[in-house]
Amino acid sequence: MPEAQTAVTDETIIDVDKIRADFPILSQTFNGKPLVYLDNAATTQKPRQVIERMQRFESEEYGTVRRGAYKLSEKATRLYEEGRQKVADLLRAGSKSEIIFTSGTTQSINLVAYSFGKRFIQPGDEIIISTIEHHANTVPWQILCEERGAVLKVIPVNDDGELIMEEYDKLLSSKTKMVAVNHISNALGTINPVEEIIEKAHQVGAKVLIDGAQSTPHMKINVQALDCDFYTFSGHKMYAPSGIGGLFGKMEVLEDMPPYVTGGDMIAKVTFEKTTYAKPPQRFEAGTPPISQVIGLGEAIDYINSIGLDSIARYENFLLEYGTKLLEEIDGCRIIGTAKNKASILSFYLDAVHPHDVVTLLDEDCIELRGGHHCAQPTMQRFNVPATTRASMSFYNKKEELDALAEGIRRAIQVFS
Ligand SMILES: *Cc1c(COP(=O)(O)O)cnc(C)c1O
User: Can you give the C-alpha Rg of the chain in angstroms?
Assistant: First the structure.
């Protein structure tokens, strides 16, 4: 299984100083202190290549897409569709028509819950999610179940934050119509065994949505090999702008789904008697899209590819291992989420200090962390903590920044004890 290989670590595979020079924000200092940005699971910073490409489009090439038969519009349409092709190549989709642009993972999941749900979910049907989902992969299914009289089932996790697969097996039945789980948990970093989850769901005839918000920037994805029906991502978590993201959907599944938002660009023919819909992906892209964001996303994908996702995974695994050791040495610091198969996310809880105080105190040293429930309250409930502090690493982070993190944590414990 490809997932087992993610434990390979290599500190030297990335020239981190060279990479950092591409990210203007990382060279900033505040009160003379360098910025230590460790909130990459919430959003990532952008390389100048992405910023400059969008600026060039806005200042020299801007036009609308899919409408005007004049130069600017034709070029904008070509660049926009090239962005779609880059996403299809990144996810190894069979065709770029299977890529729908949305504002991000939240909208992608809502699209599927609304559209697939409206057409296929009946009273008594069951939808399976897991305990460690983002609210974006919980609430839309919950609402769908309430509206359609369907039942939401939840895969439990063990104390390491790994899905208990025997329990998943027990939840599956001919009533299961949809299984929706994340590839990597944003709150704990767990990498879920999605191949097995997908295969077993298909055996009972269910469709599968994988929330890939955290996985797309960290590892190679192949939606054809995974055989998932839907896969989501967010641009702003993969070095691209906010406001853009997307949904992969198998064409045969998308073709049977009604539109989610209606209006211009998603129709085949409109009369007051009847409107017929365009084919996917246009059917799901009503209205004028975020054009320069798509072009920025394409540039971000080029940037990721120029480093290589295998190298990114190896280097980030190194950071995870290094940071884990540092945190394990601190008395009174408990790592929440200790799965064998993990991405570069370190959630922790200090006996002596509330996560919000940890974040405020370390911010004084310009170390940027996230404290809270990470839009995953059921995960916090499962581990009996009100919140955690989270450090999430990217390929532009350095081990010295994790040394600074550990030092900051020790200082916080001292201040509060
Ligand atoms: C961030 C995140 C989301 C929500 O993504 P948006 O970009 O805010 O729509 C959903 N699931 C996971 C696992 C995430 O990390």
Answer: 22
Sign of CA dihedral 187, 190, 195, 197: negative
**Domain range annotation of the chain:** 16-47+309-416, 51-305
d(CA 391, CA 356): 13
Annotation: CATH topology of 51-305: Aspartate Aminotransferase; domain 2 (3.40.640)
Q: pLDDT tens digit string along 198-240?
A: 999 999 999 999 999 999 999 999 999 999 999 999 999 999 9
Which of ligand 1's atoms lies nearest the C-alpha of 245? Answer: 7
- Is there a cis peptide before residue 258, judged by omega within 30 degrees of 0? no
- Confidence check: pLDDT of 1 > 80: no
- What separation in Å is there between the alpha carbon of 84 and the centre of ligand 1? 20
Cis peptide, bond prior to residue 193, ω within 30 of zero: no
The pTM (predicted TM-score) of the whole model is 0.97
CA of 67 to the centre of ligand 1 (A): 32
Q: Give the residue from 216, 208, 179 showing the smallest Cα distance to 343.
A: 216
| CB of 186 sitting under 6 A from ligand 1 | yes
For atom 14 of ligand 1, the residue with the nearest CA is: 213
Specify the CATH number of the domain 16-47+309-416.
3.90.1150.10
Q: Which amino acid is at 350?
A: L
Spatial distance between the Cα atoms of 348 and 389, rounded to a whole number of angstroms: 5
Q: Are 338 and 6 in contact (CB under 8 A)?
A: no
Structure tokens at 28: 């900033």
Residues identified as active-site: 375
Is the predicted pLDDT of residue 3 greater than 60, yes or no? Answer: no
* DSSP 8-state code for residue 58: I
Query: Which residue intervals of 102-163 are DSSP H helices?
Result: 105-120, 139-148
Atom of ligand 1 lying closest to residue 136 CA:
10
